[in-house]
């Protein structure tokens, strides 16, 4: 009788293990692929997380910004693999004036990324040391990711970016007024 009980426990443990692996597999499928990436970021009109972080020079940057619009770029040294995005950021930086603040937030220590980003022509863009928690607050899993936030702390545009034209399109979208249906998300 004890052999039957041990056999029952072994079979039950194997079946429980198989059930756990099946649930993990389903979870992995739902978190991967193009459909999952489309759901990354924050919805237009949603309130963005507030934060204050120092740049490499010790200057404190906050979100929302005092400027009318802030572009938060979630990226690091790997931005060198996206020359079109770098060109788009330089273009936005040149045209920004006092209307737009651009910051780059890394997932960890910004120290290794700041010099390289400066060499890429982004010397005027503050590079901030973020954290996985901050990335999670913005629902960002992949880079480079761009989120425009207005002075009220509301998301105006949000997307994964691979090309300069995507940044330009997001900038135009960010300039559009929020509609009442979008504000209901707040």
Furnish the topology, listing elements before pairings.
Layout: H1 2-31, H2 34-38, E1 51-54, E2 60-63, E3 69-74, H3 83-96, E4 100-106, H4 113-122, E5 127-129, H5 132-137, E6 145-150, E7 155-160, H6 164-175, H7 180-183
Parallel strand pairs: 3-4, 4-5
Antiparallel strand pairs: 1-2, 3-6, 6-7
Low-confidence stretches: none
Question: In which range does the helix fraction lie?
Answer: 40-55%
Strand content: 15-25%
Tally of discrete structural domains: 2
CATH topology group of the largest domain: Glutaredoxin
SS class = alpha/beta
Please count the beta strands (DSSP E, at least 2 residues each): 7
Please report the number of helical segments.
Answer: 7
Q: CA-to-CA gap between the ends?
A: 62 Å
At CATH's second level, what is the architecture of the largest domain?
A: 3-Layer(aba) Sandwich
CATH superfamily of the largest domain: Glutaredoxin
What's the alpha carbon Rg, rounded to whole Å? Answer: 22 Å
Q: Taking all residues together, what is the mean pLDDT?
A: 85
Large-scale geometry: elongated
Highest CATH level, the class of the largest domain: Alpha Beta
């Amino acid at each position: 009788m004890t052999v039957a009980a041990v056999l029952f426990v072994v079979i039950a443990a194997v079946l429980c293990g198989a059930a756990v692996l099946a649930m993990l597999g389903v979870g992995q499928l739902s978190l991967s692929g193009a459909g999952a990436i489309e759901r990354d970021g924050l919805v237009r009109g949603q309130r963005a997380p507030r934060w204050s972080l120092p740049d490499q020079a010790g200057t404190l940057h906050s979100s929302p910004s005092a400027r009318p619009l802030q572009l938060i770029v979630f990226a690091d040294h790997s931005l060198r693999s996206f020359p079109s995005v770098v060109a788009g950021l330089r273009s936005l930086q040149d045209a920004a004036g006092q209307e737009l603040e651009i910051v780059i937030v890394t997932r960890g220590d910004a120290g290794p990324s700041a010099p390289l980003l400066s060499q890429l022509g982004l010397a005027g863009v503050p590079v901030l040391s973020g954290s996985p928690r901050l990335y999670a607050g913005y629902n960002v899993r992949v880079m480079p990711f761009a989120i425009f936030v207005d002075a009220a702390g509301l998301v105006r545009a949000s997307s994964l970016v691979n090309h300069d034209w995507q940044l330009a399109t997001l900038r135009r979208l960010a300039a559009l007024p929020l509609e009442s249906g979008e504000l209901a998300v707040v």
